[in-house]
Design goal:
- With 1010 residues, the chain is mostly beta strands.
- A hairpin with a 3-residue loop joins strand 12 and strand 13.
- The chain has a domain of 173 residues: Carboxypeptidase-like, regulatory domain (Immunoglobulin-like).
- It contains eleven helices and 45 strands.
């Protein structure tokens, strides 16, 4: 009872400290010790703060990790025999980049004085355990030149090995002239190190990751029927080498280099599920119809590509499933170099290459091929102008080529053979038109052909000045981006079949058999596009160490991202009259509006140069000799990529392209055979943007308090907020609700118009409790409570989709991101699509010790077998993301669907205990009014994941280390649905739309040499 009372007392004490104290937690601090730019193992690194002292030893890659340093200022001291001691003051804080310390050799006479007679070899220190805190030896050492100069005593650039009177002697690199005889932390001789006649140090490694289908769980089937598990074998191999380049008489003082090559062959196994027409339906027998419908020739030709049902005993409406296997092949090369030029200059650079070939397989067994080829090169020059004044400049070049080859390209002209007229007949775009159905029948679709080449050239320059307590940085960046694209937006066209079609028969399947779509759309022409976009920024920042307990980091930044233009002016926007009474196309080659008479820039969107962004961060330790740390920050961040999606729509409009969006009516009858003919009521230009469009930006602020607690615990409480302004909004001008009459028959309609009047807000509180590594055990628990609201399309909403669906939609069909009522876009104010109210995460790690004294409680062979194993577990649970209920029908006055929301009936929305998680009776047709079901008003499924790993480092010989790890994703094989089918008119409404990956095991081997 006494022990129990003591435990309760301790627990109460912890809670009292937690409640009554300002809570905080420490941050891990990492660094790399180098000599001549090469990793230096065996260096003793000591961190001191007040009366606290913590020590660590650099591992084989020169890396050190302190996991239990309280945030604030620490004195770092690095010692190694044969090298001059190094002292530095550092600041520990979250997300700090890894430090880099360069040691210098002692003069020869001092080194000689250290030499002692050789002693019997001592058993080398064990290799570091492969934990997440350790850096793999095959990776290059961190090279943060700005930081290394800050931390060096004299503020000098790192010296190359040849600049020291003693070269990169292998004995001295190991920390002792006796090669481990006088240092318990030194490593033994290895390849390229301490060899006879060797003057260089080389390190490297080989990594092998292996995964086989025999050890993975079967993919989850939404139909409830088990599916065959495809066989596959995934493999990733990496080889890396780093060291100095020395060629006698040709390149005696070459640079240090790093080179790695990665070879990957991976697969992705899923079970595709859908609803396909039955044999009776293909012959014209439609449920609910007394007469048999005779399918048209076009319908028969398209039905050939639908598979027959292969499921009869299902718990839902799915009647077909197929296990498919998609593959991806990756080859990647990465190189870097580092060279000191005298005492004032440093030159670094690199080159990277990656080739990816992947195959994607859909429900209909169409195989689409995608190939990407990317290269990236950079060079950076660092120059010391004065002891405390440094100049940095760099140039980066990157190019990415992407080519997509659809299943039917240059093989089968499906549309032409079916007698479907009016679409693109280029052989690269052969294939079926896109079909979508409101009732949940699987939509027929395939990828579009494309060949895109993107290039970016970037130049940056900055000056860093250390003056007293101020570290001032000022600089600028310039980037020129080129997007050279060759593709068609919708070359084969799209057909939508709705139960609320113009035929009035109430069946989308019957309309399909008769060859009568509800809407059609197409966009092709102007395939070659040459987009250009310059990007600029200028900034100044001051890291001001006001007091030993107070640091302020403040700065100002100006960003300017110019609207994207087309090299030959091949862009189209809409010149809009007041109130959207009429619109007319305006081209970039002649940017004068025929309605308003306004003159527009070549990009047809006026630039926004008002993006000035103040940023400030404060770290304060209010109580001397206490672990309490308070942090606060504020900043403004722009959405600089907003123009990229917009310009794609502007480049595929009439008169540059054949484009239209048509609604079936008596004045404009549509058929599968002749569905792309322009009528008087057809809309040729389906997109427009406000020429005064503003770039959206987010204001962020944060306040956190941290504190150390007893029992090696650390805690922190953080509040953060984000306010989005000028977010994009999308509307359908002159549209009206179902069942209403057209209020303005002469007004222009049928197009999406984008403005920048959106707003968003997110507030989040986070509690974090961490147990630092002690007796081999560490853990971190995090709880986050957040709420996010917005009324914009995709700045706060993060994308144009809301919820999930197995339905197929055409490329020109908008999503629920488009405002339902175009006159009141603020009525879209609701939960954001990424609003996750609660998120719990837990990470637990245990590393076994050595023998009885190390914590395994075993000696002999059992202790040797169980020592130095690291077990890691990661658990995460979050509440579901919101989804929008969608009533699939064409919006009156337009040819768009998937915008309307249903009317609430008052019935419960959810159906607990049922296979259908949503209740279709809760919704009804929104006749005569806009639907009152809220945007993002459905709570999606909760998200749970648990991953784990088991790892250990072995030492096959004195020269090598072997890291072994087994990683398990979704260890418990728990089915986690990603969303519900949120289309109210679909027969699959309320069913899971897809499931996450099931359990998989991956084995990894990492062979390192020194």
């Amino acid at each position: 009872m006494r022990k129990i009372s003591e435990y309760i007392g301790r627990f109460v004490g912890v809670v009292a400290c937690f409640v009554l104290s300002a809570l905080a937690w420490a941050s891990p601090y990492r660094g790399t010790v180098t000599f001549g730019g090469l990793p230096l193992p065996g260096a003793i690194v000591t961190a001191t703060q007040d009366s606290k002292t913590v020590s660590a030893v650099s591992d084989a890659s020169g890396a050190i990790v302190f996991d239990d340093l309280a945030d604030g200022k620490w004195i770092i001291e690095i010692q190694m025999q044969g090298f001059a001691p190094l002292h530095s003051e550092v600041t520990v804080a979250p997300n700090r980049p890894a430090a880099s310390w360069e040691l210098k050799l002692l003069p020869p006479e001092q080194i000689a004085a250290l030499a002692q007679p050789a002693k019997p070899a001592i058993e080398p220190a064990p290799a570091p355990v492969a934990t997440p805190q350790n850096q793999p030896a095959a990776q290059p050492p961190a090279q943060n030149k700005k930081q290394s100069k800050t931390q060096s005593n004299a503020g000098e650039l790192p010296k190359a090995p040849e600049e020291n009177e003693q070269g990169a002697d292998g004995f001295l690199v190991q920390g002792s002239v006796n090669n481990a005889a006088t240092s318990p932390y030194a490593t033994s001789s290895a390849f390229g190190n301490t060899r006879a006649g060797s003057k260089a140090l080389y390190t490297g490694g080989i990594v092998v990751n292996e995964e086989n289908s025999a050890l993975d769980a079967r993919p989850y089937s939404l139909s409830g029927n088990a599916a065959a598990k495809p066989s596959y074998n995934d493999f990733t191999g990496v080889a890396a080498l780093q060291g100095p380049i020395r060629i006698p008489h040709l390149l005696p003082r070459g640079p240090n280099f790093y080179i790695s090559y990665q070879w990957t062959r991976n697969s992705s196994s899923v079970v595709n599920t859908g609803l396909v027409p039955t044999a009776g339906e293909r012959s014209g027998i439609v449920p609910g119809f007394t007469n048999t419908i005779t399918p048209t020739a076009q319908t028969k030709a398209l039905l050939v590509w639908y598979p027959l049902p292969n499921l009869t005993n299902t718990s839902n409406t799915y009647n077909y499933q197929a296990p498919v296997l998609s593959s991806a092949h990756v080859d990647a090369l990465q190189t870097r170099f580092d060279k000191s030029l005298g005492r004032k200059d440093q030159l670094t650079g690199g080159f990277a290459f990656q080739s990816t070939r992947s195959d994607a397989v859909n429900l209909f067994d169409f195989v689409d091929h995608t190939g990407t080829l990317g290269i990236n090169g950079n060079i950076r020059w660092t120059h010391r102008l004065k002891p405390r004044l440094f100049l940095f400049s760099s140039y980066t070049f990157s190019r990415l080529r992407t080519e997509v080859t659809p299943n039917f390209a240059n093989r089968i002209n499906v549309s032409g053979s079916a007698g479907i007229l009016g679409n693109d007949q280029d052989s690269a775009d052969w294939g079926p038109p896109a079909l979508s159905f409101s009732s949940g029948i699987a939509g027929l679709s395939d990828a579009n052909s494309s060949f895109n080449r993107n290039r970016a050239d970037s130049f940056s320059a900055s000056v860093l000045h250390y003056h007293g307590k101020h570290n001032i940085t000022a600089g600028f960046d310039f980037r020129k981006q080129s997007y050279n694209d060759k593709f068609q937006a919708n070359p084969r066209g799209s057909f939508m079949f709705s139960s609320k079609s113009a035929t009035g028969n109430g069946s989308d399947l019957a309309d399909f058999l008769e060859g009568i779509p509800d809407t059609s759309s197409i966009a092709y022409g102007n395939a070659n596009k040459y987009f250009r976009e310059p990007v600029y920024d200028v900034y100044v920042n001051d890291d001001w160490r006001v007091l030993p307990v107070l640091t302020i980091n403040a700065g100002m930044r100006w960003d300017y991202t110019a609207p994207i233009s087309e090299l030959f002016g091949n862009l189209v926007n809409l010149d809009v009259a007041s109130g959207f009474t009429s619109v007319a196309a305006v081209e970039g080659s002649n940017p004068v509006g025929s309605i308003t008479g306004e003159h527009y820039p070549k990009s047809l969107v006026r630039p926004d140069r008002r993006m000035i962004e103040p940023r400030i961060g404060i770290t304060w330790r209010p109580i001397p000799a206490s672990t309490v740390v308070i942090r606060a920050g504020y900043g403004i961040y722009p959405d600089t990529s907003v123009y990229q999606n917009i310009v794609l729509s502007m480049a595929q409009l009439a008169p540059l392209s054949t484009s239209l969006n048509a609604k079936n009516s008596t004045s404009c009858p549509l058929t599968l055979a002749n569905g792309f003919t322009s009528c008087a009521s057809s809309t040729r230009d389906t997109f427009g943007i406000d020429p005064n469009f503003r770039i959206g930006y987010a204001q962020t602020w944060q306040l956190s308090v941290q504190r150390d607690l007893p029992f090696a615990l650390q805690a922190s409480v953080t509040y953060s907020g984000t306010k989005g302004t000028h977010g994009p909004q999308e509307i359908l001008p002159n549209s009206y609700a179902l069942g209403e009459s057209n209020p303005c028959t002469s007004c222009s309609s049928g197009f999406i118009y984008e403005t920048s009047g959106g707003n968003s807000i997110r507030n989040a509180g986070q509690l974090q409790l961490r147990r630092r590594l002690r007796s081999g055990f560490s853990s971190t628990f995090t709880y986050t409570y957040a709420k996010s609201l917005d009324d914009d399309a995709y700045l706060g909403g993060q994308g144009h989709t809301s919820g999930s669906s197995t339905q197929s939609a055409s490329l020109t069909t908008p999503s629920a991101a488009v405002a339902q009522n175009w006159r009141d876009p603020r009525a879209e104010h609701s939960l954001s699509s990424f609003d996750q109210r609660q998120l719990y995460s837990l990470q637990v790690q245990y590393t076994s010790g050595q023998g009885l004294g190390g914590g395994t409680l075993l000696g002999g062979w059992r202790g040797r077998a169980l020592k130095e194993w690291t077990v890691l577990g990661n658990m995460s649970y979050g509440t579901g993301l919101p989804e929008t209920p969608i009533y699939t029908a064409t919006v009156p006055g337009t040819a768009f669907s998937n915008v309307l929301r249903p009317q609430l009936t008052g019935q419960p929305i959810y159906s607990p205990g049922s296979s259908r998680h949503l209740n279709v009776a809760a919704y009804a047709e929104p006749s005569g009014q806009w639907g009152n079901a809220g945007r993002n008003s459905i709570a999606g499924p909760g998200q749970f994941t648990f991953n784990s790993s088991l790892a250990r480092t072995f030492r096959p010989s004195k020269k090598t280390y072997l890291d072994f790890a087994v990683t398990s994703n979704n260890t418990f094989n728990h089915t986690s649905f990603t969303g519900w089918n949120n289309y109210v008119t679909s027969t699959e409404f309320g069913l899971p739309s897809s499931a996450g990956a099931m359990r998989s095991l991956q084995t990894s081997f990492h062979l390192r040499f020194q």
